[in-house]
């Protein structure tokens, strides 16, 4: 589970600033896309990037993901485990091993 | 902390399929942006979205975030907490309360 | 057609700086996603945005789109017209009128 | 100029389906980010991509860009040329030649 302490700290941070009003699911989804673009910018012209910069941008994406999960009443780790079960079925190890092809091209 | 079990399950899933070879930091950053776009698509024409669809897409963004964190030797929750400390300083509660303006416009 | 002058000016600009070496199709696709995120940021917390800011960010997305079209030997307007023909068939006016649903839900 | 015919055809296409109601600047910005993600997906695991697939996805990004330009009363080519003038000043050829560094690191 994403530590209760991380979720609590984030919740406190948001409440102190009365920012919950801006955190509609749609605004949070937009924010995730925006931060994902900033993370990608670390690699704009090269496959290599400054690790500290990547850490900071990845933190931003994760932060908004945790906020969105909270907003829709979901647990981040539960979401990942549930989706993993679905993906396991779509990509059986014997068929998918070593291949990056999409499931309908296996 | 993101449960050891989630990280371990993801690692096992990837290893079984020999997919680690595709998981360069750059490819993972691209994947996060791609999935962020699919999450945003839930809200393309409306501020409301089907919760199950949002859960599934959010799970995909989170999954690639956890994989990238692993790849660069970082702990997802540590990243978030570290960034929160930085953001706290940029947005003091007394100045930022109730305002969505960027820190250089407070 | 996107004016020969725009394409020529962009080409001259890139050549003067010897930047063509960075303009692989992949890097240009990453750049388009990055700039699309910056454009989206104009609307992060609100449906309204500063028009000048939107103009500038939209210009960046368009610039990289034109560069990518050039790189793959395509004409931007031709691409749009060709795709429009495909979309017309997917969304017949009588079925799609006034509805934002995807074509498989019409 | 982006051919009057392209803009007119797009406008007719939208009007026939009464889709203008969905084309707020915000929704169009979201759409551009969504399509940019689909374009990027062509390159998710490799620097090489199927050209026809790239043409189709690039067409989608361009289409929404043209629609947004129309919506805010701007001409796509004008936007690009205006921005180019700004970028020329930020990246003087003598300083920027052959370098992908950002303008504040030249």
From TrEMBL, chains A, B, C, D:
- UniProt-recorded name of the protein: Nucleotide pyrophosphohydrolase
- UniProt keyword list: Hydrolase
Q: Looking at the record's lineage, which domain of life comes first?
A: Bacteria
Q: Which GO terms describe its molecular function?
A: nucleoside triphosphate diphosphatase activity
Which PANTHER family does its entry note?
DCTP PYROPHOSPHATASE 1 (PTHR46523:SF1)
Gene Ontology terms: biological process: nucleoside triphosphate catabolic process
User: Which InterPro entries does this UniProt record tie to the protein?
Assistant: dCTP_Pyrophosphatase, DCTPP
């Amino acid at each position: 589970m994403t530590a209760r302490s991380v979720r609590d700290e984030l919740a406190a941070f948001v409440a102190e600033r009365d920012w919950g009003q801006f955190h509609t699911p749609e605004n949070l989804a937009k924010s995730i896309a925006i931060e994902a673009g900033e993370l990608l910018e670390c690699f704009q012209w090269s496959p290599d990037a400054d690790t500290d910069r990547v850490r900071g941008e990845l933190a931003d994406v994760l932060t908004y993901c945790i906020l969105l999960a909270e907003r829709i009443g979901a647990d981040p780790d539960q979401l990942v485990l549930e989706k993993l079960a679905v993906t396991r079925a779509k990509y059986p190890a014997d068929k998918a091993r070593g291949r990056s092809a999409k499931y309908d091209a296996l």
